[in-house]
Structure formats: structure tokens, C-alpha cells
Model the fold of this input.
Amino acid sequence: MAQIGDNQHTIEVIHPSPDEAWKMPYVPAVSIVGACDLMFLSGCTPSKLYHHHPHIDEEHIHPHSIEEQTTLAMQAIKQILDTAGATFRDIIKMTKYLTDFRDVTGMQKAMVPFMGDWHPASTTICVNSLSSPGARVELDCIVALPKKRNA
Done:
């Protein structure tokens, strides 16, 4: 059981068969032990984090490459994590939405510079379309944050 975290909580990776973990880019389960807060991130696409609603087409012109689209979505997630004082290692669950499952390898490759060797619990879903026309990937996550201490 791998553990990361601070002195207020520990994130434990649950692998029923640790010797087979190398086969997967995610973990079967993640357990939070101790005091922490949870943060739920809305889905991030290759669109800018802040954009008009209803959508203005010019704000949603995306590169075609799944790697570039994933990088843009991960940069949006990083903005949120940085604001909350968290890191990618604090992500305990990520849901990945793709419009073409053949893009899964390219998406995973583009996530490595952000996630490193950390693999949270994960689900990948193939959908017909996403909220932003031309977007091929959308990512949302749940993050474990240390409880804020009273001053």
C-alpha cells in the first residue's frame, strides 16, 4: 500500500495485486485516511477555464491533436490546484471523457508531465460529444485537501 500526504491526512493507494500494478495507468482504489477536505473540479476541456456562456465560437477553437487538447485541459486543472494550494498528487479520482477511445494512449501520454508517476483512481468514458464543439477530451477530478487550520 503506497502512501502520500501531509501530517493531517494520508492518501493510500489500494492494489489487491501490487505485482500487477505496472500494467495499469490508474489504481483500483484510493483511500483517504485522516482529516482532509474534498474539492470537486468541474470538467476541464481545451477551452480557456473562463469563457462566455452561452458559448462564443471564437473562444472554442482547439488544436486537433489529442495531446495538445489534453495539455490545455491539464493546464486548466493546474490553475485550480495552484489556487487551492494543491498538487496533481492530491487528485484522488479522475474521470476522463473522450469522443474517440482510440485517443486514450495520446491522452495518457500528455498527462505524464503533470501527473508524473502518480495514478489516482480513474474512469474513462467515451461520449458522442462534449460541451465545447471540437473538444475531444474533458477531465474532472476529486482532490483531497488538508483541513485548513484555525489561526
